[in-house]
Amino acid sequence: MQELHDAPLAPLTTFRLGGPATRLLTATTDDEVIAAVREADASGTPLLVIGGGSNLVIGDKGFEGTALRIATRGFTLDGTDLTLAAGENWSDAVARTVAAGLAGIECLAGIPGSAGATPIQNVGAYGQEVSSTIAEVVAYDRTAGETVTLSNAECAFSYRHSRFKEHPDRFVVLRVRFALEDAGGLSAPIKYAETARTLGVEAGERVPAADARETVLKLRAGKGMVLDPEDHDTWSAGSFFTNPVLTEAQHADFLARVHERLGADVTPPAFPAGEGRVKTSAAWLIDRAGFTKGYGDGPARISTKHTLALTNRGGATTEDLLALAREVREGVRAAFGITLVNEPVTVGVTL
Ligand SMILES: Cc1cc2nc3c(=O)[nH]c(=O)nc-3n(C[C@H](O)[C@H](O)[C@H](O)COP(=O)(O)OP(=O)(O)OC[C@H]3O[C@@H](n4cnc5c(N)ncnc54)[C@H](O)[C@@H]3O)c2cc1C
């Protein structure tokens, strides 16, 4: 197992932000992962698990403890049954399942990071979420001190949330098993309106899975949502805030504020989000609160392609990023009475 001391973490994150870790281990087998976790837990050393670093905001002071980078490999496709080691690159794995003619995760192409992190926040985009295809998750349970297999129901998935996110220090994901679909090379039914429109089909129709994947990749690239080291709009964690889910009373209050501020004819986006709940768009709120694309004059700014991505233009510190995030959050709260919640995981800092 590779071991480094006083190791910079910024290069391991897509924000390129954060100070060093006291110790950085890179594990390439499940045994190494488990040994590293057990050792840290036995000695009471704080542990930070890192996959692709695409959903992490690490403080400028870094991490006092052991950072464990998961670099395990394993892609096994047996019929429609896909098992991925935690360290597999997610987007590459999606491409391979589409090439094999399978459906279920094609619209999750281009999402950076590792397969093992996908259950953590129930990764989703363009009408798909991993919770629809995950059959089970094999994880090391730090409380029980053993490897466990969790069924889909036991993962308690919801919008950008799961049991793993609820108990961040309990499970280290080792493998994820997906039940994909063989629809003769076709995608799952296209749910997202923008994807359907771009593909020239009605929502609910199927298209060749490869077309769905390519269309999503194009749409994502146009929004700076596919990693490109040359493009500072992608030095981000993707969406910085989750879309707020409101009760009916909160939604009514929100609509009243929108009408008062922007006029009675303005209708904010609203999507059903379960019994008595409405989801609205964080990007819309940010934009309408006055934080438009490219907002900011420092080294941390809103992406020029998407209002929901906060970005490092090069030379930013985590404090610069957090200052911008707080400004946006306070501005939205003042304008619309809604408090945005950050999507990326913060380490050693809070928003
Ligand atoms: C340009 C861009 C676009 C994005 N688009 C999307 C999108 O469309 N939809 C979406 O949902 N997300 C999106 N994201 C966010 C991010 O890519 C996902 O959340 C991804 O799953 C994070 O994977 P990672 O391996 O990089 O995790 P990391 O950032 O390394 O870690 C994130 C969290 O997961 C934990 N973790 C990582 N691996 C494990 C493991 N094996 N076991 C236990 N815990 C673990 C970490 O400790 C941390 O708490 C985007 C990010 C970027 C930069």
TrEMBL record:
Q: Which cofactor is recorded for it?
A: FAD
Q: Where is the active site?
A: R160, S239 (proton donor), E343
Question: What is the top EC class of this enzyme, as a single word?
Answer: oxidoreductase
Q: Give Gene Ontology CC terms.
A: cytosol
In which compartments does the protein localize?
A: Cytoplasm
What reaction is this protein's catalytic activity? Answer: UDP-N-acetyl-alpha-D-muramate + NADP(+) = UDP-N-acetyl-3-O-(1-carboxyvinyl)-alpha-D-glucosamine + NADPH + H(+)
The record's EC number reads: 1.3.1.98
SUPFAM superfamilies with a match to the protein in the record: FAD-binding/transporter-associated domain-like, Uridine diphospho-N-Acetylenolpyruvylglucosamine reductase, MurB, C-terminal domain
Q: Name one GO molecular function term.
A: UDP-N-acetylmuramate dehydrogenase activity
The protein's annotated pathway = Cell wall biogenesis; peptidoglycan biosynthesis
Q: Which GO terms describe its biological process?
A: cell division; cell wall organization; peptidoglycan biosynthetic process; regulation of cell shape
Q: Which InterPro entries match?
A: FAD-bd_PCMH (IPR016166), FAD-bd_PCMH-like_sf (IPR036318), FAD-bd_PCMH_sub1 (IPR016167), FAD-bd_PCMH_sub2 (IPR016169), MurB (IPR003170), MurB_C (IPR011601), MurB_C_sf (IPR036635), Oxid_FAD_bind_N (IPR006094)
Residue ranges that the Swiss-Prot or TrEMBL entry lists as coiled coil:
none
| Keywords, sorted A to Z | Cell cycle, Cell division, Cell shape, Cell wall biogenesis/degradation, Cytoplasm, FAD, Flavoprotein, NADP, Oxidoreductase, Peptidoglycan synthesis
The function of this protein is: Cell wall formation.
Please give the family membership noted in the entry. Answer: Belongs to the MurB family.
Q: Which HAMAP family match?
A: MurB (MF_00037)
The entry's protein name is UDP-N-acetylenolpyruvoylglucosamine reductase
